[in-house]
Amino acid sequence: MSKRNPDYDFKWCPGCGDFGVKRAIESALVQRSTEKQESVEHTVMVAGIGCSGNLVHLQEGPQPFGIHGIHGRTLPIAYGIKSGRPDLNVLIVSGDGDFLSIGGEHIGPQAKRNLDVTAVVMDNGVYGLTKGQASPTTEFEAVTPTTPYGKLDDRMSPLETYLSAGVGYLASTLSTQVKQMAELISDAMDHPGFAVVHVQSPCTTYNDTYAALKGNAKEGIEPLAFPIPDDHDPEDFMAAVTLARTGRVPVGLLYRRSDSVPAHERLRAARERVGVKQLSVDEILTGMAI
Amino acid sequence: MSKRNPDYDFKWCPGCGDFGVKRAIESALVQRSTEKQESVEHTVMVAGIGCSGNLVHLQEGPQPFGIHGIHGRTLPIAYGIKSGRPDLNVLIVSGDGDFLSIGGEHIGPQAKRNLDVTAVVMDNGVYGLTKGQASPTTEFEAVTPTTPYGKLDDRMSPLETYLSAGVGYLASTLSTQVKQMAELISDAMDHPGFAVVHVQSPCTTYNDTYAALKGNAKEGIEPLAFPIPDDHDPEDFMAAVTLARTGRVPVGLLYRRSDSVPAHERLRAARERVGVKQLSVDEILTGMAI
Amino acid sequence: MSKNLVVRFAGEGGQGVVGGSEILAAAAAQVGYHVQTFATFPSQIKGGPAWGQASISTGPLLSGGDYLDILVALNRYAYDHNVQELREGGIVIYNSEDFELDEGGRAIGIAADQLARESGNPRAANMIVIGAVAELAGMPLSYIEQFVTKRFSRGRPGDEQIIEGNIKALHMGAEACKGSFSLGSPIEDPTPIEGERILIKGFEASSLGAIAAGLDTFIGYPISPATTMLTFMEANLHGDDYFVGQSSSEIESIAAILGAGYAGKRAMTSTAGPGLSLMGEGLGLAWMAEIPLVVANIQRGGPATGLPTKTEQSDLLVSLNPGHGDMSIPVIAPGTVEEAFWAAAAAVNWAERYQGPVILLSEASIAERAEDILKPDLSLVREERRTVSDGSVENRRYEGDGVSPFPVPGGPGAYVANGSEHDEPGDTTHLPDVHVRMTHRRFNKLDVLMDGDYESERTDAPVALMPWGGSKGSARGAYNEIIEEGEDLGWYYTMYLNPLPPALLDELRAKELVIVPELNYLGQFSRVLRSMGVNAQSITQYTGLPFKVGELKSSVREQMRAESGKLARV
Amino acid sequence: MSKNLVVRFAGEGGQGVVGGSEILAAAAAQVGYHVQTFATFPSQIKGGPAWGQASISTGPLLSGGDYLDILVALNRYAYDHNVQELREGGIVIYNSEDFELDEGGRAIGIAADQLARESGNPRAANMIVIGAVAELAGMPLSYIEQFVTKRFSRGRPGDEQIIEGNIKALHMGAEACKGSFSLGSPIEDPTPIEGERILIKGFEASSLGAIAAGLDTFIGYPISPATTMLTFMEANLHGDDYFVGQSSSEIESIAAILGAGYAGKRAMTSTAGPGLSLMGEGLGLAWMAEIPLVVANIQRGGPATGLPTKTEQSDLLVSLNPGHGDMSIPVIAPGTVEEAFWAAAAAVNWAERYQGPVILLSEASIAERAEDILKPDLSLVREERRTVSDGSVENRRYEGDGVSPFPVPGGPGAYVANGSEHDEPGDTTHLPDVHVRMTHRRFNKLDVLMDGDYESERTDAPVALMPWGGSKGSARGAYNEIIEEGEDLGWYYTMYLNPLPPALLDELRAKELVIVPELNYLGQFSRVLRSMGVNAQSITQYTGLPFKVGELKSSVREQMRAESGKLARV
Ligand SMILES: Cc1ncc(C[n+]2csc(CCOP(=O)(O)OP(=O)(O)O)c2C)c(N)n1
Ligand SMILES: Cc1ncc(C[n+]2csc(CCOP(=O)(O)OP(=O)(O)O)c2C)c(N)n1
Ligand code: SF4
Ligand code: SF4
Ligand SMILES: [Mg+2]
Ligand SMILES: [Mg+2]
User: Fold this and answer.
1) Element (H or E) spanning A91, and its range?
2) pTM: predicted TM-score of the whole model, two decimal places
3) Can you give the CATH number for the domain in which D126 is found?
4) What ipTM is given for this predicted complex?
5) Which ligand approaches the C-alpha of residue B204 most closely?
6) DSSP secondary structure code for residue D226 in this structure
7) In chain A, whose CA is at the least distance from the CA of C229?
8) 3-state secondary structure of A150
């Protein structure tokens, strides 16, 4: 059920991390529309397929446009939206399976183009909607319905993947940090180019990582999550790689490329530089006259 | 025309870098069959679509098996081949478009599985067979039929991509270095896990980079290619990343993961560890008895 | 006394409605009834309207039944949205902790959760309800006690206690509605069934059929309603002979099983519509390079992401021609859970025999339902293997105008398996006559698949009914009633949709009219039949649910009337 | 005197055989002949057997012609593999530097390279050969001089010298075979043609047709024979109004133009079979979410990588049903270079009008050939735009049972475009009645596309010929000859393959037999027609080459005979 449409009856499981992400996005959009007078109709939410993607139907408050398509194709759809409409703000909401497995091929090309979109990736380390199979971010050796002997593939490091692909803005956070997440999302939307906010968003039904992320002082369990130290320079690429390779979950802004020129700006500038004249169809046809 | 089949009439353009790659592979296979008594029928060459992939039909000397399928799918085909037949040696021959653009999605998953195959990627920085369009490795700002204002996407760094994906053996070389390449290929085939030999293989017709790679002392042009310093430790991941990020072409062995356990070994060991008994169909059905 | 009992448990996902119906069915099956389950739920993990149904009968069941005898409604929404399907005289059991009902005395409120707590086992709410159902249906509690005893005798400490607790809950449920009222006609006692019976779901049957025929390799990507085959394989195939893997996408799946097939393995994937739509190029490659493989496509509602958890038969056209260029992919579509076993075995064997891709076209309603069947006689399962090259034709893998020996890597006959047009050794060619020759070769190979069998009855009737896939059961139900009513109507049915058994095709071509009930909008199979010269017309339905026998019967009779009107006018 | 002249330049890729034929055709077009070119070459960059052909005529050309008047053979292989197509009395010009021939006096050796060097311009070998061709064909050299003069008058220093050199080479070539012998009947002088004529290739025509209809966005991935559209767009669309981009795969292409269509743009991609096979899921999404877009699929030989540089018409079935679930994608297939312009414009307009995906189904032989046509009258090009939502139905984008106003992001009516089954605001649903309602809505929308026009002639004849796509020309040639021979045969033709113009379908259904010539194995279009109740039969060819008029004519006459035999027996 959503405010907009009481007939819509999808529900996340109690405690699902995605609730926090929803609240963070809502608050970022409200803030942008009140503080920056950004028109919410100029925001398009592009959703992946998975529990996470259903966020697009659940959004309360000011209603952006949405598109909820097929599994793994948020980025190319966003590419098409921005291609002729750089005036639109595109916000991707996707899961680890959708964005990093079947959709993983699209990260590199958009990073190289520096497409001006923000992707919020809800990483629960599992395929939620299809009932708990291993995803690229599932822990090594975890037993799931598709890994009866424990997962044998190395765990993927999404942060490292984004960095090497050339993503120009990268933040990592937790679904419980709603306020910080809202700020990071808004900051990412301000970044002129491809930005990713990667969120640890636990799946209470199939992969409940709340305890592991928080740790447990009593039982001597170190938390996986740790705040990015204040002295980290987000423009230092190798430092960001090092943070990404800790095997833990850094929380905060990892990387920001300062010289970021987004795809549509590159095109505009190049066209201006080259200054080719647009011929009409009639002129082109006339050029073919016998 | 190939030795095996005089009716086959495909030809590379004069000077094409792929000739050198062909010779290197031939010599590696000969060496393996003579020195190691490796049966060439146990080698399968999986070819991509492009000028480069046609190598599979041109191979002279001992004839391996081959499969020449569809664009971009060498790795998943190789995955299937190895899945039930770890006894086969799989050698992938592919181009920058095939392996890194449409096929780019497959690198991560196979690296994480640590599939035991060797990929020889012929990088000419261009789509050769389709006549010279930009590829992910085409230089920034290069003018091609699909980049009339110069290429606006950042150039991809394949070496960095492989490393961050988790490729466990990575060499970089030039098509002109036939002897060294043959050794690297054979070494890569010996590596228990996913290995990539990335070859700068110039396209004389659409992107002739011979001069740029070699440089020109007289005209003060620095060569792009440089030998990897002897003191480089191929087990040092961050050092390999640094080499990959020079913007130039390191020649030699960049990275080798010493603790590499290939996919089929992981599976075998895990099954042994877990020791589940295989039930017959009859037993399973009987278990469903009413 | 009645021969059938249909009970539906309706509520929210997570309330155990599917489990409840399955327990009831299992219990009934155990004492000798025939059973079938059916469930439907939205694409979400917890919550959302869901229901599970158990159909129980003294005779073999053709379909789930059109109307409910008992509706168990766990909330108001469930009641409102299911009560229309209650038959006259049917009973509602409702959750009186959630809402109140006054249904002219045919509704009975039970506080199942509270009773369960009182029974000492707060998780026994399901048993309370089942006890109530048994009481109302006139089914001896001893039947269910038997089941409970068997099910929980697992040789663990505490088994006995659990059994006792559950039996107590059963009786409490029965007690709770004793004396209120009951179904007009309680269900007859079961009649003993000969043979070794099993209770099995469709996805289990097709997985096991494929394994029985020698499957080596299974690689798949999760997608409803096909994930269950993948996880069944993961759970049941171990050891060096087998490989089971989760892929990173359907594009990887199809290419991977192609690689496995090329390397000599019998390989399979399972998927549903969205995945199949990504496999068109790979299936074309298997056709072109002549690589055996099987794609099990478990149909759901389409197109695009569509209706992931509903049933439909709308992937037939794309299965026959999934990609560009001239091809004609063999398709086998089972119509029952039992056939799901044999169809899968046949698919693996066909792929080996003609050396190419085969689509096992199943559907959600078959894959997900449980049915009691006789344990398949495994001595009847063939395990065919492709003819392997002994190297005598050297590397000329594509020699000849039909199926030829297959060189397996590691053995003799090194060649290039090629997805471009190729000559005999597999090297690329552009010569017109070679393209013609190889095209003929590829289509000629279908000739070895003309052995499919088919059902036919009343072959003299000018009009025939011919369902396909999962619509078989409802169609057969409708057919039986029509025949009983004295009408003349032929019956044809086959799992082998492509190539159709030639003798069947001949018979169909001779009919005035062939009526094809199918769950899609386009009338996909009748289109195919018409393109082959059969005067076929569809009866379509596209609700995401199976046909009801009664509705289908009226539609068939209407088409028969229209046809005889037409004939009369001629 | 003759009305036609067919000259083929055969040799290796890289020897300029395609260029040679195009120069000859352009020169002939310029002085008033009708021309058509055709070329074929393997999938490689340099080398390999290749040929280019120029067909020149005093009247409009329907096809490239069945036989060669002059064969220019640059090597022995080219001679051996092309001489069978030389007509009786035809002439061979061969490269005497490469091999020797004795062809009963109908062969003449020319050392073109050497002569070119002697002319002072070593790159003028082509001109030497063209001079020889003109001399032998009895075509005044002045015609070609005119062309050379115009072509090289580019206002650059040195133009004059180049012109002079080329003209010298022409004369040297002519001189080299003067007095030897000549074609029995030299070609007639051209008759002046009214109107503004242009020489244009098929891919240019379809690109420009789309632009004329208002195309905004073009995103494609290179693939033969569709890359030319992508590079044409890159070269010709500049400025803020347009976006042209190379994608990283066809999966990216389809999703990207879908995103553009969603955002209000008129968007298109071009691809060929392997790419189309990757777009099935995306096309289903466009159908389901109701997003306008156009896929130009330029057919080559299939399946899989197939025959990348050859022509075929074997992607019709997959175009109509490219993915899972119930859909029926509109398909427009041009039959000539001129139609390629109008078909592309219509495709863009159809997509806007019905708000969904459209396939422009062209083929290698049309995309790659140059033809002289009258410059399209741009005042006849419509530029349709989808009706945009003004927000009056709020966010109920999928309201109603047909085309409804489209909310464009940035404007009012925020909704979710959804590829799962959805309700009016675009939110996911699993309710049976909504799936039924929305399925009807999607199919009803096709009703607004029933305006396609068609050709019909001799509509009383019981048997009709109905080609589609690029087989139109040869079929028309065959048709004309059959009619001239006094037979009765109807003619039907349309570019609008789906939905077919309803009146056309009615006419076809009334025929005893509709004969469909098509370049595929399965007889794809006749299958579709039969499934719609038309008694259609195909004449198929699958060589990678177009039909020859003479062969097609015999096949048509044979089918006509068989049919009348059948009728007589009735
Ligand atoms: C082409 C295709 N393949 C598979 C599916 C089935 N599917 C739906 S959601 C999903 C995985 C979702 O995992 P993730 O993206 O991590 O989302 P989560 O549910 O965990 O939020 C899959 C495999 C599909 N819809 N389409
Ligand atoms: C699905 C698909 N898309 C596009 C093509 C067309 N195609 C053939 S080769 C090629 C590019 C090859 O580039 P690369 O891999 O770099 O090989 P090269 O020719 O440069 O060696 C493309 C796009 C195809 N065959 N299949
Ligand atoms: S299954 Fe997991 S990810 Fe999906 S809604 Fe439930 S808790 Fe959230
Ligand atoms: S086009 Fe380039 S890559 Fe292809 S054969 Fe020629 S030189 Fe080699
Ligand atoms: Mg997930
Ligand atoms: Mg390349």
Assistant:
1) strand A89-95
2) 0.97
3) 3.40.920.10
4) 0.97
5) 4
6) T
7) A146
8) coil
